[in-house]
Amino acid sequence: MVNTSNEEDMRRLSGILVHPTSFPSPYGIGDLGKGAYDFIDFLHESSQHLWQVLPLGPTGFWNSPYQSPSAFAGQPLLISLDDLADMELLEKSDIEKIPQWKDPRKADYIEVREYKETLFLQAYAAFKHTPNKMLLEEYDDFCMANADWLEDYSLFMALKDTHEGECWADWEEELISPIPEVRASLKKSLKDEIRYHQFLQFIFFSQWAKLKAYANEKEVFIIGDIPIFAAYDSADVWANKGLFQLDSTGHPTRVSGVPPDYFSATGQRWGNPLYDWPVHKKDGYQWWISRIAHQLKMVDYLRIDHFRGFEAYWSIPAEEETALNGKWVKGPCEDLFLCIQKELGDRLPILAEDLGIITPDVEWLRDMFHFPGMRILQFAFQDMGESTYLPHNFTTVNCICYTGTHDNDTSAGWYQGLSEELKDKIRRYGNTDGGNISLDMIRFCMGTIARFAIFPIQDILQLDSSHRMNTPGVAEGNWEFRYLQEDLDSSRSEWLRQTSHLFGRY
Predict the structure, then answer these.
(1) Please, where are the H alpha helices in 253-400?
(2) Which one is predicted more confidently, 1 or 424?
(3) Which candidate in 106, 228, 263, 427 could, as Cys together with 306 as Cys, close a disulfide (CB 3.0–4.6 Å)?
(4) Paired residues of 330 in beta bridges
(5) How far is CA 148 from CA 59, 250, 297, 503, in A?
(6) Strands of the sheet with 268-273, listed across from one edge
(7) pLDDT category of residue 60 using cuts at 50, 70 and 90
(8) Pick the CATH number of 14-33+48-144+222-503 from 3.40.50.720, 3.40.50.300, 3.20.20.80, 3.40.50.10490
(9) pLDDT recorded at residue 404
(10) Tell me, what's the pLDDT at 9?
(11) Average pLDDT of 179-205?
């Protein structure tokens, strides 16, 4: 984790938002192998110092990284098969039998899971009989160092496997809230299954640590991302029911979401169980401190999605089908972050996703801890009014300027959907003909006073709406975007390098 009090950390930096699943790879999905290292090399050669990812946990329903079965675990699908072969846990011939994927520009999660999980089981079988004592010692050390979350997670996943992925709320009654005797029995009967999931986490975190070290050597800093809420069908909720607003049967009484906004006229009902903040306060927010500390070992900066939920959150009765009938409820506010500061240091490298309905109280909370907020250029140019997102209206350097986020359309797709009148205003504002609007947007972003400038990889590749990462409110077809290695050619690198230097971002 970086020290945000260092003067060097106030440099004007820029970089790219892309999730590892989007990297080039012959294995149906991006991973932590060659495609990831090639991307870091591209950033370095292009004078880019920031790489922003989406949450790195296992994906759950509809493959969303924002609905994970764990707030701590890593995504096994990101494990590099080539690295497993280099570790002699797979034979080279094992990974040469690659399926014919439908579309190399999209991740096919169903087929990838079937393909990779078969190889993971082979690797685990080899691991159990490996003569490599150092590897076994590293595994034991990892399990001991991460026992506070890994034991619950591995048991939870082993139980999900035996129940064919069924939600924990539908398991046998004794497994919904197992007493110590039942847990001890399960650990014996499911010993191998539990160890398998611990093995996958050991491999993921080993590969991630190696990749992060390489990035930092190249002066590339990683911006992580976590959702504010935990998924209901997660090890976190299953093992810590008292921390959430659940009834006596373990079902949520109220759930998360947001009121109507830019993305949806009926709001968004996310469905996550809400935290019981008074209970968290009693032990000094230890679950949250552990979560933040764990993430900051993995990344240099941490973006918290839906930051405004710490000041006040939209509470929806669980039986409601939409978010319309929710209400604002006060959150933990500064009390939470003061406790985190006490444990982790005064200058936390946290970035605040402060989009949506932002009140002066939210801004005060953000600014009290010097957390940079977000400025989205697509929102600024949407109506060309007196938006605080317009570059000439920025009043602080302590913010991140984005062309768009993973929830936005690509800049090219967004521009094509605008009225001719608005297109004309944007062209005049930026002194451009609009022929390369994606690059224009990056140039606008780079030229602002914002400390950080970040753009999705789709914008440097000048891609249209068919390549967006996520469409809020649409369940299927999201999180699948991938690019090919030849897309990031030397001409794009040179343009980025020159543009970054022009605006003092290097």
Answers:
(1) 277-282, 286-298, 334-344, 360-368, 377-383
(2) 424
(3) 228
(4) 312
(5) 21, 22, 15, 45
(6) 268-273, 254-258, 312-317, 327-330
(7) confident
(8) 3.20.20.80
(9) 98
(10) 61
(11) 98
Indicate if the pLDDT at residue 486 is higher than 90. Answer: yes
CA separation for the pair 61, 52 (Å, rounded): 23
- Supply the pLDDT for residue 6: 45
**How would you classify residue 183: left for phi > 0, otherwise alpha for psi between -120 and 50, otherwise beta?**
alpha
The residues pairing with 52 across neighbouring beta strands, listed in sequence order, are: 17, 223
Which residues have a catalytic role annotated? 305, 353, 407
| Chain-centroid distance, C-alpha 424 | 35
DSSP category for residue 299:
-
CA count, 13 A, side-chain hemisphere, 3: 4
pLDDT in tens, 67-76: 999 999 999 9
In the chain, the N- to C-terminal Cα span, in Å, equals: 20
Q: Within 13 A of 51's CA, how many CA atoms are on the CB side?
A: 26
With H, G, I as helix, E, B as strand and everything else as coil, classify residue 453: strand
- pLDDT tens-digit readout, 247-270: 999 999 999 999 987 667 888 899
Q: Cα Rg for the chain, rounded, in angstroms?
A: 23
Q: Which two tokens stand for residue 49?
A: 């110092």
| pLDDT mean across residues, the chain | 95
Q: How far apart are CA 313 and CA 333, in angstroms?
A: 11
146: tokens are: 């991460």
DSSP sequence for 101-144: -S-TTB--HHHHHHHHHHHHHHHHHHHHT---HHHHHHHHHHHH
Query: In this structure, which amino acid lies at residue 168?
Result: W
- The pTM score is 0.96
Tell me the C-alpha distance between 330 and 127, whole Å.
49
Going by their DSSP bridges, the two strands 312-317 and 301-305 should be labelled as unpaired
Question: pLDDT value at position 2?
Answer: 46
For residue 177, pLDDT beyond 50: yes
**CA distance readout (Å), 212 to 53, 154, 364:** 12, 24, 33
In the chain, DSSP finds a helix count (H) and a strand count (E) of: 20, 12
